[in-house]
Amino acid sequence: MIWRDLRYAIRTLIRSPGFFAVAFVAIALGIGVNTTILGIVNTLLLRPLPIGHSDQVVQVFTTDTHFVGRSPNSYLNFLDYQKQNSVFSAMAAYSFAGVGMTRGGETSNVLGQLVSGNYFDLLELRPFLGRGFLPEEDTSPNGHPVAVLNYKFWKKLGGDRNVIGNTITLNGRAFTVIGVAPPGFTGVDIGVAPEVWLPLAMHGWIRPSGDEWFENRRALFLGLLGRLKPGVSVSAGQAQMQTVAHQLEQAYPDVNKERSVVLVPAEKAKSQGIGGPGNENATQDISLLLLVAAGSILLIACANVANLLLARATTRQREMAIRLALGAGRSRVIRQLLTESLLLASIGGIGGIVLAYWLGDVLISLLPATPVPLSLDPQPDFRVIIVAVLLAFLSGVIFGLAPALQTTRWDLTQGLRERAIAMGGGGIHRWNLRNLLVIGQIAVSLLLLIGSALFLKSFHSAQQIDPGFRTENLVIVSIDPALAGYDQNRSGQVARDVVEQVRRDPQVRSADLGQFVPLGFGGEGRTIMAEGRDENAQSNRKVANISAVTPGYFETMRVPILRGRNFTEHDASENSAKVAIISETMAKTFWPGEDAIGRRFRYYNREGSFEIIGVARDVKAITLGETPLPMLYTPFRELPDGGITIFVHTAGAPGPMLAEVHRIVRNIDNHISITYEKTVAYGVMAYSVSQRTRELGIRLALGAQSSQVLQLVLGQGMLLAAIGLVLGLLAAFGSTRLASTFLYGVNPSDPTVFIGVTLLLAAAAFAACYFPARRALKIDPVVALRFE
Amino acid sequence: MIRLHNIERSYPLGRGQMFYVLRDIDLDIAAGDFVSVMGPSGAGKSTLLHILGMHDHGWTGEYFFDETAVHHLKSKERATLRNEQVGFVFQQYHLLDDLTVYENLDIPLSYRHYSKSERAALVADSLDRFQIVGKKDLYPRQLSGGQQQLVGVARAIIASPKLLLADEPTGNLHSSQGEEIMELFRRLNEEGMTIVQVTHSEKNASYGKRIIQLRDGWIV
């Protein structure tokens, strides 16, 4: 019997291609957007890590009262944690490292991960090919040049099953491939997928300038994993680890002062890196926000299709009346109509799922460039597909059931006589289904519009925020010659050579080197001690970002020196006194109400003091919304760990210059790889975004009502709009708080946005009611009734 | 077979006033009867037919169908009784446009408790009986008016109802096609089917065994 309903449903849809096309697009978009967002949320939060007994694995983070959020760990503390804890059956460490891989004469960047010898064992991973590391391969410094490849990376290299025992060239050195990780395993941090794993003891070859990090108990750079012993809870584990941390703080008060640890289940910690320190819940918040937005879109799609079905049902009243007259029960007719809507939902759902495969990649491609490419696989897996199918089914029931119930409530004798029957069985004063749909659509539209407007206003506010440095005609290119096997001295010389050649280009106004990329992805922070002050006083010990720069940097970046002087070439020479330029905020933080020029400071726990020779204006370091962070500049002498960045101020558009810098770097040595690049020409995107949002808002507001507004008189239409607006406002007040983390300079309950968007939608609702109503009033009532 | 006593049907006019479509109807219809209901427009003919067919529920009075007190039945019970006992033929044919002739005949059976093979046999019999086998895969729009009404009659009786109700069955047909349908009704009646038809045509009314005249809701 179902088959007959289905056959008839197919025939009905084929006979109404216009209706089918519109409904299909609405459902496909609704399901497509939801499947895409579910795919992303699944990737970020829900999909379990492909490791053994992941519930027993925790990540260990350092907490420091001076730092926001959770921090990595120092190597020396890791060794002590390993020895002193009794809650873990094993502890492993890892650290990301950019690596230059040479193949066929070309060097390219690959993302490496230095891991302790027990890493694969702790995670209970069975390599796809070969084996993981042995503990002894992580004992002698640079003693065992072995590598395990990421499965996808191995595929990219050709997928040779005989790869075990082959050598690959990393940073100019030969490493033997001993294994290929299992498919799907990309480490324990979502979004960052190492392409090759190397023993931590090989760090001298991988990070030539990072040796001191392993000797400095204060340097926080190491991710730590622990597998809890059976029966040990996370809280019990944390209590014991905090005791260990406290003992280490007492044993090494100069470096571990005010530091402790926190344990976070690996499943929970896997996506916290995306939000950054202090923003560990960002992924959850944005996931929830995206789900609310996607759900709203699906609701609007359902309401629109329900409206289409209701409008179409008017033309099918005779058919339904005949079916009822021939003996069909109400449930039988509802089943027939539901079969049609479920068929529609199924076809739309399939379209949506196909769309999601494409939409996910599009969304990921819209993400801004990062130094380490984000590795997200948003493609829906079977779990997402199942949820999408259920969503489509649910949508079919939602948009099909109400019109079906409404349709079968008709007066049979009236239906057979083909008299006028107002949908919903009543006049305009009744709270019929269409009225409720209008209210719902307006409410959800308002919610979405307020959300969009807040982000738009935030974007606009961000445009108004002065980042403190040049925001036009700027080319930023980062290189790390160390990845091509250069030592620190030669690396520095290479960087200088590149800058010299860039400066010769007539299109270049100036070009300089700097270590820290403002509004980039963070950099190196150091704890600074003001000299001559009480070292134990917290106010004298603050963290500052450091950046080694060439003298012209401040001019190239248009960061004015407010007091004191700029660096000279002499300041950069080997034997000259150590000098520094600090930011206004650093000056105010350490020497409030005093002149910082001539003052001295040193790095916490380090010898050698710096004299402050200048104070520069603040720049935004990580985000536009941040309160300025202390910043410290030193003369560029040698290449710091992590490479150096060339900042080029161009006379014209920066785009062509990027290619030129590429060419110059390649000419010097084509093994040197570019780790990050960006041209800065802000202020272009805002206009197009605002145009599209406005268009979207009007379309939503008008489209939401176009099918049903004809039969509503103005007053009633506006009453519905008012109810919808109030509900939408309530929903918006509730949900925009989730977005607060992502808004710059905008209150999530910003009154101008709330009032403005509400008025805009109210005006759109008024127009949508008024004009059709006026047109309807011009028609002869008898004619109108005949058509009803 | 049918006994109506003091049947009244009215609609509210507002301010407590009522408009009566049928007044104090007393009517007995025996099994095998063929009754023609006549009267001017607005006399209540179709309303009476829909009350007989148990489509209309807003009446008062007593209605016995084979000793079953319809006026005491709940809506669902009336629907069951109607499905089992009554067939309808409409002036507008009311075939479902998107179904073939075969499927239109199958529809009433699909709403009743027939197995797939029973339905196929009954539809095949019906196609044979009305000599429309060759048209079974055609859609209603591909048929003439007379052919459509033929299918309408076939559909009305396919589930073997005791009572056949027809509302102006020939109103949309040419006279020759109308005669064919009326001849068909006569044959069905001779085979034992009880028929009540509403008609404006004296000629069509004469096919019946008796005529009931309605005027302003009263039987005259």
Short description, anyone?
The complex is a heterodimer of chains A (788) and B (220). With 788 residues, chain A is α+β, with helices and mostly antiparallel strands.
Strand residue percentage of chain A? 15-25%
Low-confidence stretches of chain A: 418-430, 682-713, 776-788
List low-pLDDT spans of chain B. none
Helix content range of chain A? 40-55%
Q: Tell me the strand order in the biggest sheet of chain B.
A: 6-7-8-3-9-10
Measured by residues with Cβ under 8 Å of the partner chain's Cβ, the largest interface is: A-B, 22 and 23 residues
Number of strands of chain A: 21
Mean pLDDT of chain B: 90
**Major sheet summary line of chain A:** 6 strands, mixed, barrel
Quaternary structure annotation: heterodimer
What's the overall geometry of chain B?
Answer: globular
Tell me, briefly, the overall form of chain A.
globular
Folded structure, characterized:
The complex is a heterodimer of chains A (788) and B (220). The longest helix of chain A is centred in the middle third of the chain and has 37 residues, at 330-366. A 6-stranded mixed barrel of chain A has the order 2-3-8-5-7-6. The radius of gyration of chain A is 32 Å and the shape is globular. By secondary structure, chain A is α+β, with helices and mostly antiparallel strands. In chain A, helix 2 (17-46) runs antiparallel to helix 15 (382-407). In chain A, 46% of the residues lie in helices and 18% in strands. Chain A has 25 helices and 21 strands. Chain B is of the alpha/beta class and 220 residues long. Helix content of chain B is 35%, strand content 28%. Chain B contains 7 helices and 10 strands. Chain B has helices at 45-52, 75-85, 101-110, 116-129, 145-157, 175-190, 202-205, and strands at residues 2-14, 17-29, 34-38, 59-65, 68-69, 86-89, 163-167, 194-198, 210-215, 218-219. In chain B, the strands form 2 sheets. Chain B has a 6-stranded mixed beta sheet with strand order 6-7-8-3-9-10, sandwiched between helices. In chain B, strands 2-1-4-5 form a 4-stranded antiparallel beta sheet. In chain B, a hairpin with a 2-residue loop joins strand 9 and strand 10 (218-219). Chain B is globular, with a radius of gyration of 18 Å. The model of chain B has no long low-confidence stretch (mean pLDDT 90). The chains are: A alpha+beta (788), B alpha/beta (220). Chains A and B meet through helix 1, helix 13 and helix 16 of A and helix 2 and helix 3 of B.
